[in-house]
Amino acid sequence: MNGENGKYAWTVKIGEKGQFVIPKEGREMLGIKPGDTILVLGDVERGLAILPKDKMDKVIAQIFGEVNM
């Protein structure tokens, strides 16, 4: 489904093993190829987010930047 401002939505079915396929259009748009590593983030209230590896470092830095260690 095409959205405005570069935002898209697709539906997928979850298989018996809890797996799903990222739609071809999404993989192509984000440059995700077989064998790539992706980051899956989960929030009980907001749901799941899937990020390609090239966005991973920025997101991890933001997360740990907010945590006092």
Describe the structure.
The protein is α+β, with helices and mostly antiparallel strands and 69 residues long. The chain has a domain of 31 residues. 29% of the residues lie in helices and 17% in strands. Strands 1-2 form a two-stranded antiparallel sheet. β1 and β2 form a beta hairpin. The protein is globular and about 35 Å long. The mean pLDDT is 85.
Q: Going across the major beta sheet, what is the strand order?
A: 1-2
The helix/strand class is: alpha+beta
Q: Average pLDDT value?
A: 85
Largest sheet: 2 strands, antiparallel
Termini, distance in Å?
Answer: 42 Å
Number of helices: 2
Shape: globular
Pattern of helices and strands: HEEH
In short:
By secondary structure, this protein is α+β, with helices and mostly antiparallel strands. The protein has two helices and two strands; from the N terminus they run H-E-E-H. The protein has a two-stranded antiparallel sheet with strand order 1-2.
Topology:
Elements: H1 24-30, E1 38-43, E2 47-52, H2 53-65
Q: What key phrases describe this protein's structure?
A:
single chain, alpha+beta, 69 residues, globular, 2 helices, two-stranded antiparallel sheet
